[in-house]
């Protein structure tokens, strides 16, 4: 088995953990997909943290290639990291999805003050506002005095793949 140009941090019967060449982050993958990156240097994208490598002049994203091989489908465009950790490339953490489903499983925005996805303070009415996206379109769910009521509304209305609300 050829060693990648990345440092192996740990290895067991089923998984391998690597350290990236360009920073101190590590990623994990199932050992059976190791051949995808054998002998190549894997790096991490700056903007989204995905593991990527170059093959025949084309940028390959590790999570997408694993799902394409696993599912036997070269047409897969979007792959979701179930736990939102882009360094966790175990096949159990990866699922094919459409763009809308992938967007639902995002972390809360950094400027979120409510603590819940889809909930924001609406100053004009002095109330909490609930809003979610469905198929890329905003769906207004109402205004509420109590943050618990608004978060319950979002939880009960959000699509099942939205992740933690």
Description:
With 165 residues, this protein is α+β, with helices and mostly antiparallel strands. The protein folds into 2 domains: 91 residues, no CATH class; 60 residues, GCC-box Binding Domain, CATH 3.30.730. It has 3 helices and 12 strands. A 4-stranded mixed β-sheet has the order 1-2-3-8. Strands 4-5-6 form a 3-stranded antiparallel β-sheet. A hairpin with a 2-residue loop joins strand 11 and strand 12. The longest helix is centred in the C-terminal third of the chain and has 11 residues. The mean pLDDT is 80.
Mean pLDDT over the residues: 80
Main sheet makeup: 4 strands, mixed
Number of strands: 12
Label the structural class.
alpha+beta
What best-fitting shape do the alpha-carbon axes yield?
Answer: elongated
Poorly predicted ranges: none
> Could you give the distance between the termini?
43 Å
Tally of individual helices:
3
- Listing every helix as H and every strand as E from the N terminus to the C terminus, the arrangement reads EEEEEEHEEEHEEEH
Count of discrete domains: 2
Q: Could you tell me the strand content as a percent range?
A: 25-35%
Share in helix: 10-25%
Question: Strand arrangement, largest sheet?
Answer: 1-2-3-8
């Amino acid at each position: 088995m050829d060693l990648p140009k990345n440092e192996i941090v740990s290895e067991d019967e089923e998984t391998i953990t690597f350290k990236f060449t360009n920073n101190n982050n590590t990623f994990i993958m199932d050992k059976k997909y190791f051949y995808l990156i054998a002998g190549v240097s894997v790096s991490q994208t700056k903007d989204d943290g995905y593991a990527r490598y170059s093959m025949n002049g084309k940028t390959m994203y590790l999570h997408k290639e694993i799902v394409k091989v696993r599912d036997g489908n070269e047409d897969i465009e979007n792959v979701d990291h179930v736990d939102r950790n882009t360094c966790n490339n175990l096949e159990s953490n990866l699922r094919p999805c459409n763009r809308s489903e992938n967007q639902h499983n995002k972390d809360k925005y950094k400027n979120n003050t409510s603590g819940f996805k889809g909930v924001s303070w609406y100053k004009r009415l002095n109330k909490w506002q609930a809003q979610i996206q469905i198929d890329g379109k905003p769906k207004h769910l109402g205004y509420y005095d109590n943050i618990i009521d608004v978060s319950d509304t979002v939880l009960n209305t959000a699509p099942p793949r939205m992740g933690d609300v």
